[in-house]
Every structure is written in C-alpha cells, then in structure tokens.
Amino acid sequence: MKKILAVEAKLLLRDWPGVAFSIGLPVGLLLILGQIPDLSKPDPAFGGQRFVDAQLPAQMILLALLTISFTVLPSVLTTYRERGVLRRMSTTPVPPARLLGAQLLINLMVALAAAVLVIGSGWLVLGSQIPANLVAFLLVFLLGTAAMLAIGLVIASVAPNSKSAPGIGSVVMFPLMFVAGMWIPREIMPETLRTVSDYSVVGPFVNAMRDTWAGELPQLPHLAVIVVGLALFSALAVKLFRWE
Fold first, then answer.
1. Which residue spans traverse the membrane (predicted)?
2. What is the pLDDT of residues 134-175, one digit of tens each?
3. Rounded distance, CA 225 to CA 53, Å?
4. Is 26 within 8 Å of 118 (Cβ atoms)?
5. Among candidates 142, 139, 143, which has minimal Cα distance to 231?
6. 74 close to 18: Cβ distance less than 8 angstroms
7. How far apart are CA 194 and CA 192, in angstroms?
C-alpha cells in the first residue's frame, strides 16, 4: 500500500496545476474577499461575529473540498478506467480497491492541506479566528470530506469518459455551492431554500464548521445529515462504480 501511495502521490504532483487550483482558488478568494471592509465588521446577522470569522473560512474550505472531490478525483479515476489501469490491476496480486483507497487517501491529504492554508492565511493576513474547538473541527472536516469524496466517486462512476467527468462535477458543484450559502448567506435565504440547504449535506457541513469556529459542539442534526449522506453516497458509489 505504501508503494501505491508513493506512486499515486508522484502522479498527482505531476498534474500540479489541478492541485494548485484546488488549493489556490479558495485561499486566493479568502484573501481577496477579506479585503472588503464591510466583511470585517461585526454583523448582527452572524450573531455579532465578523463575516471573515463566521462564514468565509468555512465556505472556502468547502470550495476546496468540492473542487478536489468533484473535478480532480473523477478525472483521475475515469482516466485510469479508460486506459485499462484498473482492469490490468485486477489480474495482479494487488486488488484495484487498493488503488482506489490510495486515491481517496491522497485527496484527503490534499483537502487537509487546503484547509490548513485557508485557516492559516486567514489568521495571518486577515486576523481571522481559528476554530476554537479544534477536535470538533477535525471530526466535522473528516466526515464532510468523506461525504464529498463519496459523491466524487459517484460522479466518476456515471461519467462516460475523462473529458466529461469535470463537466459533470461542475454541474453538481455549483448548485451545491449555492445552497451552502456561498452566493447568498443562509441567514437571508427564503425559508424553502433554507430547508433545502439543511438537507443538502453541504449546508449542515458549513453550519457545523461554523459551530466549531465559535467553540461550540456541532449540532447533532447537522452531523446526522452528513453521516447519512456519507452512507448513502458510499453505497451508491459501490453499486455504480465500474472498474472497466
């Protein structure tokens, strides 16, 4: 498994533009949006917190997760399927599932690096707070990342080829960004849209992350939606995933 991880990591680094975009985009947006004066002022809509503390870092971490899970991961797996890599591995003592596990672990590490850079750059440049409850933050982050990667596996399963995989991922990603409050803060959403957000996995993920920033424990309904989403999409990925 260590050798597979090392090889996959090298291959991922060769495709450095995709990795750089997944990490650089959320960090760049965080620093740009953080320069807007009104976003650095306490806002009653966020319980007296600043937008750069209460909302922006969690949204940028979500953006990194969506980019990695919905574009990078499906592109790699569909390319492997097209080239017959997974099929050839099935005839060797190394099962293809190990390659899949290595890909998931590597993308998890990339997502973690993105989260660290978002939090660190916000703290150093904007004076943003770091999560006050780091243990709860890590739990929410791992559950949310696993759920996003499971959706990415579903996208890789239904994508007919490597060229269409990023497009399908984008079609799924942008509506999820909307219901997560990336365009319109959840606090000012219409009630119907807020309900959709509450059951969308990404909405509870952002809300749970915000709780950890405030030093609170994530609300159980938010965690429940994330866990249920993880279970459902994992089961769907197992059912639909094609090795060849």
1. 12-36, 56-78, 99-126, 132-155, 167-184, 220-241
2. 999 999 999 999 999 999 989 988 888 888 988 999 999 999
3. 24
4. yes
5. 143
6. no
7. 5
